[in-house]
Amino acid sequence: MEALIQLYEKRKEAIKGEDISAVLHRTPGTVRNQMQTLKAMGYVDGVPGPKGGYTPALKAYEALEMEVIKKPFTVHVYRDGKPVEGVTVQKIVFTQVHHPTQCMSAITVIGDSRNIRDHDIIKVGPTPVNHIILRGEVVGRDDSRRELRISSHSISSIPKGKVADVASNKLISFAPNTTLIECARTLAGKRISAAPVIDKGKLVGIVTEAEIVRAVSRGHVDGFVGDIAVKEALTIDEDARIIDCVEKMKQHDVGRLIVTSGGKPVGMVTRTDIIRRMLD
After folding, report:
1. In sequence order, what DSSP letters do the residues of 244-267 get, joined into one string?
2. What per-residue confidence (pLDDT) applies to 176?
3. Rounded to a whole number, what is the distance in angstroms from the first to the last CA of the chain?
4. Could you tell me if 109 and 189 lie in one domain?
């Protein structure tokens, strides 16, 4: 019944007995007999026809104390940076947190757990609410229950909330005609490594310490910020979720984003800002 619910929540269509038998590693005949019994008890509805199969009744959800989710969030398992095909995560349980040197956890998957091998190094998540990301090694399994035992290497959680909750709202910016010497002094004095370049209220780029060093090494000591600024400055709205900010930083391999409000720059958010929030 649990396997039927998992498949139905994933596909939102009638599930054939052969699909259930593949998940449970049992013969189709055994599954059909069990489905007929559950159907007679009111836990399962049968859908006739070529595209037919079985669907779980509300009574099945209640019996398993499971909530009916209209639009379930998909939590992937990643191996070598890519999602494992045909496998998503239903549940994460931390089974050993008091041990001084080990942290064990167990995940229950939807799909064929055999697609994940023993000793695979995997990443799970992020989860939809607390944005938990679990990394570790597969050290045990129960394929009949689609459970994998994980020796956890790291467990992190991206903070809830909006970008505005972690970003600096004391915006330090430069005009394009600011000299490189003045810019460098300001960055060093404020202990920051980058700042937006704004011309007549419009964001036109971002200047970084790295760009200044490159300019100086080429002998352009007397240059201006506008000459070296990176024109395509990456931004994120202040009302965006923190996890969206993290994903954008990862996608573009950057450590900072310019925060905007109504399209206008109002601050800066860095990886360090997010890490500080995680440690609060």
Report:
1. HHHHHHHHHT-SEEEEEETTEEEE
2. 95
3. 42
4. no
Boundary-marking domain end, from 157, 172, 191: 157
Tally of domains within the chain: 3
**Domain for residue 69, yes or no?**
no
Provide the pLDDT for residue 157: 87
Residues 153 and 226 in one domain: no
pLDDT digits (tens, 9 = 90+) for 35-76: 889 888 888 888 887 778 888 887 887 777 666 566 668 899
Give the tens place of pLDDT for each residue, 254-280: 999 999 998 899 999 999 999 888 877
- 147-151's contacts with Cβ under 8 Å and 24+ in sequence apart are 147/106, 147/107, 147/108, 147/109, 147/113, 148/106, 148/107, 148/109, 148/113, 148/116, 149/95, 149/104, 149/105, 149/106, 150/104, 150/105, 150/106, 150/107, 150/122, 150/124, 151/102, 151/103, 151/104
Residue 9 lies in a domain: yes
Q: Are residues 10 and 80 in the same domain?
A: no
Where residue 244 sits, what CATH number does that domain have? 3.10.580.10
The range of the structural domain enclosing residue 56 comes to 2-63
pTM (2 d.p.) = 0.64
Can you say how many angstroms the Cα of residue 55 is from the centroid of all Cα atoms in its chain? 30
Q: Is the pLDDT of residue 146 over 70?
A: yes
